[in-house]
Design a protein that fits this description.
The protein has 478 residues and is mainly α. The protein has helices at residues 39-58, 64-71, 75-83, 94-97, 100-110, 115-132, 143-155, 176-195, 223-232, 236-247, 254-257, 294-306, 326-335, 344-357, 362-369, 373-379, 385-392, 400-406, 422-431, 436-439, 444-447, and strands spanning 2-7, 17-23, 29-35, 264-265, 270-274, 287-291. The strands form 2 sheets. The protein has a 3-stranded antiparallel beta sheet with strand order 1-2-3.
Amino acid sequence: MASLSRTKARTTDGKPGWRIQFMDGAGRRRSVYLGAVPKKIAQSWVSRVEDLLACRLTGASWDTDLSVWVRDLPDVSHAKLSDAGLVERRRATECETATVAKLIAMFLSRSSARPATLRGFKQTLDSLTEFFGANTRLDSITAEGADDWRRWVMSDKRGSGRRAKKRTTDDNRLAPPTVAKRVSVAKQVFRAAVRWEWIEKSPFDGLRPGSQANPARARYIPLETIRDVLDACPSIEWKLIVALSRLAGLRCPSEFGALTWGAVNWQKGRLTVLAKKTEHHGGDHAVRIVPICPELRAILADAFEQAEPGATLVVPSAARASVNFRTYLERIITKAGHDVWPRLLQNLRASCETDWVERYPAHVVAKWLGHSPKVAAQHYLMSREHHFEHVVSGGGSEALGKGAEQAGGAAAICSADCSAPSVQIAVQQASASGSTEPQETTEPAATIQVAAGSSVFAPVTKTGQVAGTGFEPATSRL
């Protein structure tokens, strides 16, 4: 049924090869070229080709021996049989077709992370593409290549995009916590490829990301500094941005933009916050309740008085799709006579939590701030100098809260019994007396029906019963 013949060498110094010829079911002559292989191997192929042809013509199934032989053929040899119509062409595996670009595109499309989180991943994904190449096959990336990528990320001084030459380090290299974050994201991306069975093992498995905490950029911001900044704010809306960050620990801008007047429970001193960053975890991660200290209450009351009739948002400017408070806040801090601190809004939130933890249990404060005590210890809580001095002065056996009071008042804590000057509170609350009646209707449980996972409050608007302006000029935007 099949014949074996010699073929001429393709080059002058090459060896002649072997060719198997046969007639297929349509009467056409087909050939399988074996190349320069020993005659015994070529003869064994003749019998295999005859078996395959017989099964093809009669529709019979392959026996076990023939199935194993075809299965174990190299891709090149298997392609010769498929070109001759004896076997089906092998499907290309994802491992053979998956590239760095394909993995990144699939990872972004299948990820359940929020858009802001995915935007944070972009620098890592761009660095993977730049280093390995968009069309590089995943199975060609080795553990050595992953090590080289991390060394390249650690030593790169150019930056990319808008961040080029604007890094916080003196030599324009990435800070170690940033490198740790990029390694963590890269491990996550390649773990997805393993889960999808595109590769057998991730080349990044052996890399240890390291700590993502960055104590070098942590700054405790005292309340005295914040009061100077509040005095320098040009509008009540800017006062809210500073006060909600430092006195209530809200995330800016994600939690500011969704904050409505219906979330303010004036009677019980509670602020219902939609935690957009953690709502995808479900349960009680979507909504949390934050206490309102007297100093923050006075600022909220002023803002409520000055809000336009029918207004629902507490900080309207934070609800815009793209908002950046950093540049203008730096100007306000400078105007107040203070040096600009790193991580402007994050350090305000961290300072708030540091104060609260000195008076209340860590697990309670973590619930107010919307994360775990472990996250708080790694990224938020800061050591205070007055604790150290208190121990040196012999007061180590006393309560830390008492030690804070002995530190001279500079570490005063804004809590349920806030240290705001009593005169200031009395004056500001008196100015908001006209808002007493509508405030009684802002109980979250009664008016907004917050459900776990919800991202929307039923609107609660300011009514005409409230007085118009207070000490600050009315404003609808910054």
